[in-house]
Amino acid sequence: MKILMISSEAVPYAQTGGLGDVVGSLSTNLAEKGHHVTLIIPFYRLVRQNRSILNLHSTLTQLTVNMGDADMWCRIWETSPSSRFQVFFIEYNQYFNRPSIYDDGREAYPDNGVRFAFLSKAALDLAVKLKLRPDIVHAHDWQTALVPYYLKTWYWDQQVFKNTASVLTIHNMGYQGQFTHSISRFIGLNWMQLRSDEFEDHGGLNLLKGGIFYADQITTVSPTYAKEILSEPGGCGLSFYLNRRKGDIEGILNGIDDKEWNSRHDSYIPANYSSENMGGKAVCKKELQKRFGLKVDPKIPIFGIVSRMAHQKGLNLLMDCAEQILEWELQLVVLGSGDPFYSSFFGHLPKEYPGKVGTYIGFQTELAHLIEAGSDFFIMPSLYEPCGLNQIFSMLYGTLPIVRATGGLNDTVRNLDENTNKGNGFVFYDIKAEALKNTVGWALFTWYNNKKAYKAMQIQAMQQDFSWGNAIEKYEMIYQKALDRKKNWS
């Protein structure tokens, strides 16, 4: 197939979180499977600064983009990671030449609605200009949720898109692209689209809601999350409209880049290891304890956290039981940034518990890998988690996750069965600090009193296959369903 991927971010070019991981890896793996993939993202300042490293060259010095109330012009850059994979970058400095992708460090850019409407429209205009004729246009989250709308309205008679179907992937329902009606003319919406079934939402616009209405097929990033969004609170206010498309929604668990996240070959950690030879993990644990100023003792278990510090991640549950947990014989390592409320709490813990708690407010790739490799357990008490990647990284590094049963966490982590020693982690269900505390206690008891079970779980966790192979086959099926739907409606 010819697949046009349109996104606000993608590794290795620009990334703020899981969206960039998934889009970059999915595109690469689709191309490796034999599909022709074209990826279009903005030409951000970060991309500009690295354009020589990324081997970028200018393709078009001027592309006309017809927005709803204005003609605009942008420049196009290009690179080709492989013969089946091209990447184009939309350069429009007023929108994309900024220090960060979505916000100024405190709040979202107020013009995000027009910025990403322009990206969506420019990407399709570029496809027309280059005569790409894609079978599938794959959009991601609210930032490019206008793409399915544009395909069915502005471009309905374009020969380039005559046989093109659209797929919209929802990575996180918590972010929907809600703006005032003032940008309607710029986007190119008329009174017919400004109704509750499409873009209207509590007196304003909801771009994700419109994308849900127009997309031929919809995916989420895990099977459980696909079910959770069909009711509240999982649907974040849109469950009624998602239920109308229930038959067109599929949950596909994200794969991971097993070249980067592989304990056998990871260049970020001090020693490599495998499920057959775990010696290197002890070296990683010792280095982790030293790096964070903890007591160096292999007998004391380390509980690691690598997280965006946001309400979604359930860190309030850990805050409410931290004092009780830290009375136990364990160590805690935290890496993350975000909400100052959480950053302040976890940032002060090392002072209160010297030698027992280590915290780094911010993000470092090397530290993230070291925590995954050197920890014995990994805590993810998320209130909701569309897919989650860190629990997968943890398991592949022999670090047992402690998670709440939601979204992709529920799909990937199997609770310990003490009768058979089968399982790859520890799972709790209630959104309560007491439930998290008890589950940490269970993990701690297993560490000190049932080493046989702990080691058996490590092996089971590390021998799982979370590569993109299975996910790619499911995306291929979704693409075919989208094409079939397009033909039936044509």
Describe the protein.
This protein has helices at 18-32, 45-49, 93-96, 112-130, 146-152, 184-187, 207-214, 223-228, 239-244, 279-291, 315-325, 340-352, 365-374, 390-396, 407-412, 433-449, 451-462, 469-489; strands spanning 2-6, 36-42, 57-66, 71-82, 85-91, 136-140, 165-170, 178-179, 200-201, 204-206, 217-220, 249-251, 302-309, 331-338, 357-361, 377-380, 400-404, 426-428. The chain has 490 residues and is of the alpha/beta class. The strands form 3 sheets. It has a 9-stranded mixed sheet with strand order 3-4-5-2-1-6-7-11-12, sandwiched between helices. A 6-stranded parallel sheet has the order 15-14-13-16-17-18, sandwiched between helices. The chain has a 3-stranded antiparallel sheet with strand order 8-10-9. It is globular and about 70 Å long. The model has no long low-confidence stretch (mean pLDDT 95).
